[in-house]
Amino acid sequence: MALNAEQAERLGQLLSTHSDRISQRWSEVAAAPLKGRLTVAEAARHTGELQAQLRSALLAGATGVDSVHSAELRALLTELSRSRARMGFTASETATSVFALKTALYEAADVEKGDDAALRDYVAWSALIDELGLFTFEAYSRAREEIITAQGEQLLELSTPVVKLWEGVVAVPLVGTLDSARAQVVMERLLEALVDTGSPYAIIDITGVPAVDTQVAQHVLKTVMAARLMGAECIISGIRPQIAQTIVTLGIEFGDIVTKASLADALRHAVQRRNADQRAVKREA
Amino acid sequence: MDRLPILKIGSVLLVSIQIDMQDQMALQLQEDLGQRIVDTGCKGVIIDITGLDIVDSFVGRTLSTIASISRVLDAETIVVGMRPAVAITLVELGLSLEGIRTALNVERGLELLARSTEPDTADDLELFGDPETASS
Amino acid sequence: MTTSEATDRQVQAISSDEDVVRVRQLVRTAAVAAKLSLVDQTKVVTAASELARNTLVYGGGGSAEVCRVLNGSRHGVRIVFTDSGPGIADVELALTDGYTSGTGMGLGLSGARRLVDEFHLDTAVGAGTTVAVVKWAR
After folding, report:
1. Which part of the chain is the STAS domain (chain A) (predicted)?
2. In this predicted complex, what is the ipTM?
């Protein structure tokens, strides 16, 4: 709790009586560091909403950012931080919009000409505004984290296309370094593609993968085992000599998994197997 | 106790598991299927688990047992429609479903049965003469 | 156990086959609410199924407490299985792949451990068994 009840009430009243003057000054000071990236009108709308919400929170009895009466104020601050983060403003620029209220209050309350009581009030209000600013900062960094996570996921999706090569054959050409997270995504998407296309053969082409470690090799092996459980066969193609060496050195058992030198060889193998399956069915039918 | 329905389509028995089974229900299925194989003389069984959102070691073991029982009764069991998330989980769990044949969907399962349940070709039958043409 | 806030705590007694199904459903609901990926949901529900059955078969019944947990910005699901059964004499052995004291495939405990992110086993002979597991959203 930043304030006592009387200080909160006095701030609420000040925000009401000098409403126009404060909102004018607040939006001015807040807009200054944004250097035209946000229109004055927009900045004014944001500070205006904050002012209205802060006033109603205080008059309802809020004494700090954690008060039950501040729930809507917190929601508004979070929303503001999110939209600023998405628009590319820095955390300081975002928090400054809140801190600008200090200047507006200092002038509106006429602290310079006031007595000790006025100064004490101002110090307490400042503490409240600091709380609000810190809250904004936290919300901003959470929003940034979410954006980064979402972008990471989008990148993963883009970097692992699963393509249908032939009737009954899907392939995933892997390019670039495979880390554990990406290997996991590849595995899931490949298995999904088997179901969606009803393909009993899958080719994992690792021509574009510069190196594998134990974990990645394990993921590939698990994919092959999972595909078998679902009733599909995997073929691994494009294993470079260095990777073959790593696999053997690490003691990873590839067992009876079919490996082919190139994607073309793997496709030929899969199509031949597929045709043989269908001939067998026709003969019996 | 609810029982899972076993459908007979041509010479194939089809079970589609659509609900989160209690253990007892899985054991009941194991019993019922054995009986139906003997009653119908079917040579193929397809168990569709598209509707199962998890397969734990108990269900996995029951499926293995069903496959073994049907093999003893001269019928082939194919488990079809396992979801990717279930397959990944089973691999992590360390369950390999030893002795179970699988296919992506019912259609592929039927193909697999067609390939494996009748290894005798028509040529072999001719040695004995076709009983139907002989009698007519 | 990781310091974390727990919400939506629910307790399910485990004394029959049906209860094992109920535990699975509770865990599924919690996993969806914690925004776990489909694969992670499947893993944690499967682990819960194994452990609930252990509680029923080897612990002679008990309970499962399911709750959602939050650690920083990471969501997760925590399940605590408690029974007052005979306990486990050799924990190392019980966690070995293929070990079984009953009719299972011997994958119950060790398999469930591989499916979750955190696994705590607390047991003593004659004093029952408590297994706490957590699965975090990726």
Report:
1. 159-270
2. 0.86
